[in-house]
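Example complex used in Figure S2.
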Amino acid sequence: MELSAPLDAHLVSPHIPLQEDIDEYRRLSAEQAAGVAVVTTVWRGRDYAATVSAYLSVSYDPPTMLVSLYEGSRIAQAVAGSGLWALTLLTAEQKRDANWLASPGTPVEGLLSQIPFRRGPGTGCAILEGGLAYFEVSTTAVHEAATHLLVVGAVTAMGSQTTWQPGSSPLVHYAGDYRRLQA
Amino acid sequence: MELSAPLDAHLVSPHIPLQEDIDEYRRLSAEQAAGVAVVTTVWRGRDYAATVSAYLSVSYDPPTMLVSLYEGSRIAQAVAGSGLWALTLLTAEQKRDANWLASPGTPVEGLLSQIPFRRGPGTGCAILEGGLAYFEVSTTAVHEAATHLLVVGAVTAMGSQTTWQPGSSPLVHYAGDYRRLQA
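Predicted assembly (366 residues):
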């Protein structure tokens, strides 16, 4: 049912995007709701962890996941360097952990000293205690996309940790804030 | 704070995944909450549209998005063939449209005859009326990943349509159902 009145639109500058294009995209793309996870890896003997909302389940057969990471970040370097990583999907009760692991100034030493975790049997990566589910992944491809790396991998192990309870919710990021689902 | 008790884990068969691996992955990956969108394109003079929850904002500079589509689907063929596509992010009030465009048996003719839309100025693709925001995208790369295509593109135009109202929510897919955020 096509309507005739024109759409309001912001056209992106066709050659190099202007600051106003980037600002408008930042504002509008915040309208994407996304479940929050923590990506972890072990690289050169050290644990790395960061809060992410840009990850996907790509395929069921074989089980395949993707995480998008800012190429200039420590976590991108560590995940790409290691080739093995894990995702823990967070509940709404884990907002504090999400905030901590999203802050730009997290320390290299002692990053997980306040966060209970166990090591996954498939990768040795940290799996945060109390998440909804976790996945251990072995990288099969890394694609560059603008400022980011798209890291694709095969799931080698997985599990759930929390038994569902009435009123429980995944942690959801929307419009710059952490939210929960309506019960 | 590493805990010593071992994790419960389902290990995926290392060569070819077994049906039980795929079933367990399907069950656990449903724990990923995701905002719901509709991807549209025009290919060979015809409109295509499908409900998706596997899409990402990849980068702000330049504004870059990704959608993951089952390679054997009509929408994947059309999006890959056209090179131009659009995403409309849905509100919780658009559950009916999401259900319709997610059904496997949608007709090729008259797919959008009951859904109000306008054409985006950047691509000519259908933008569903009443969404939270929309993005028009020009494909820059297509990567194969297991059964899916990862279609990456540059945002050429964007806009918002709905003024925010108290109690409004994005449409969120979680655990096999459509949900909304707590107000």
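Residues 37-175 of chain B form a domain with the Pnp Oxidase; Chain A fold (CATH 2.30.110.10). The mean pLDDT of chain B is 94.
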